[in-house]
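Thread: "does anyone have the structure for this chain?"

Original post by V.I.:
We have the sequence but no experimental structure in hand. Need at least a predicted one for the grant figures.
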Amino acid sequence: MFIYLTLYHLTIAPSIKDIHDIKLTHYQSERLTKEICATILKKRDHNLTWKALGSATSAAVQHGTPEVIEECISTYPDIIWYTEKGFHLSLEAITQRQEQVYNILFQSDVHKAAQANLMDKEEKENSLHKAAKLAPPHRINVMTGAALQMQRELQWYKEVENFVEPSFKKAKNKNKKTPKMVFMEEHKDLFDEAQQWMKDVSASSTVVAALIITMAFAGAFTLPGGNQDDGNPLFLNKGTFMLFIISDTIALFSSTASVVMFLGILTARFAPDDFLYALPKRMTIGLVFLFMSLAATMIAFSATLALVLKDKVTWIAAPLVVVSCVPVALFGWLQFPLLIELVYSTYGPSIFRQKKNE
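Reply from O.Q.:
Generated one for you, tokens below.
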């Protein structure tokens, strides 16, 4: 009992303490921010408030600290219009790809309409030009793989494109380039990487799925135990044999569907907009069917061995179940994070969650 409690304190307690320390630090930071904002506001000096809160919001948007921006705007709403040396709060939020900051700034239609007309006079760029540029490395690397990074960039571009004025979509910057031209130029290397990543994953998965098709198809005609003189399978009346037939059928059809989806990716046109929905959808479906086919193949294999050996080795079923779970678990461990990220990024809630107007 003493050893158990010691191990508990060494493993569980430090983790709980770390969480407590993080929450305490966050709470203290929020309280400190509120006190600083309140103290500055009590000075009743517009220039001091403007400079102090403006510099704070400028630093917060670059480091992705939405709590500071929210508190500054709550304390002094006009700070949302803070500009200095080409800095615009909303334009910087788009440039830095800070979706939480973006959601705070565009939480009402009034602010959204006003912010949509902002221009970087030095570069002659509007919001869509900023969204067309490549995200900073520390922000683009939050997604796994070049394809998902390209998808996130398209999501930003489409989001900003939805609220800017129609004339801004074809407006030219000081280099005589429209937002679409800037997007294609800035994302050329990422687009090539995303295309190659999609092809590599699809090609590798197609080989695996094709091997499963071969095994499942052969298994349908080479039944365990063979056939009787009348042509009927020897183990036709056994429940384990039905499990083999069902799992082999699922393996065959799911692996075939997986190959079809991956071939659809390999033969796709690979237009930039396809990375927004079409290609991730095919990749998601292909990986799901590939996982199903692998799991069904392992079940069919285990059922076959159980049928053949159960009269000789009565305890064979339990070890077979454990062994067959190993490759399925390995596939899940290696591929499920990518699959979950694909599903969440493509079908999950949008990262742009504006609050309702009050």
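V.I.: this helps a lot. Strands lie at 83-84, 87-88, 119-120, 125-126.
O.Q.: and Residues 190-347 form one domain.
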